[in-house]
Amino acid sequence: MQSKQKGFFLLSFIPAIAYWILEENYPIRVALSVGLGLAVIEILVEKLWLGHIHSLSKFNFIILMFLGGISLIGDEGIWFKLQPAFTGVGVAAFLVFQKIRGKSLIGELQKDFPQKIAVPEALTKNLETHMAAFMFAYGCFMAYVAFHMSTDRWLFFKTIGFYICGAIFFGFEIVVMRRWVRKNMNPS
């Protein structure tokens, strides 16, 4: 299953790349229609390839269909391009909602791992708070990109740029977590 997930990784870029290419050369309705069609194919391939559809994929798909529909009706691509902004803010809101309910997304994910690693609950809550802030900030940034930058730059930040920013965030987060562990886990 792990190799299938690695192969699926790049598939999620296809609707955005197709939109980018088609927007330059065809009417916006063609770019939107193909982008939305590829999103449908993407979700079907995920179901067939992995045997299930991830919750985040479902969330993204619903947002993309809704915003893409608005874009088609208005004959304007901005709504399609706002999908990463809505996803970032939505994920941040979900993390905050889970925190308010006293639940931990990372704690739930840890139960799925075969090796049980005892990560302190306070540390995972701290990480989730920082992740919520990162996703909210990135969502707001993607809204700015959608409105004020070219589709070329939008595509970069929707795809590779997100992973670069995420790597930088997690690099800083590792430093923060190490400091937390030293401060709270060392017997003094």
Brief summary of the model shown:
By secondary structure, the protein is mostly helical. The protein contains 10 helices and no strands.
Which tags fit this structure?
single chain, 188 residues, mainly alpha, 2 domains, 10 helices, elongated, disordered N terminus
What would you say this structure looks like, in words?
- There is one protein chain.
- The chain is mostly helical.
- It folds into 2 domains: 1-81; 84-188, no CATH class.
- Helices cover 81% and strands 0% of the residues.
- It has 10 helices and no strands.
- It has helices at 2-8, 14-25, 28-50, 55-74, 78-81, 83-100, 105-110, 121-148, 151-158, 160-185.
- Helix 2 (14-25) runs antiparallel to helix 9 (151-158), helix 4 (55-74) crosses helix 6 (83-100) and helix 6 (83-100) runs antiparallel to helix 8.
- The longest helix is centred in the C-terminal third of the chain and has 28 residues, at 121-148.
- It is elongated and about 65 Å long.
- The termini are far apart.
- 24% of the residues are buried.
- Residues 1-7 have low confidence and may be disordered.
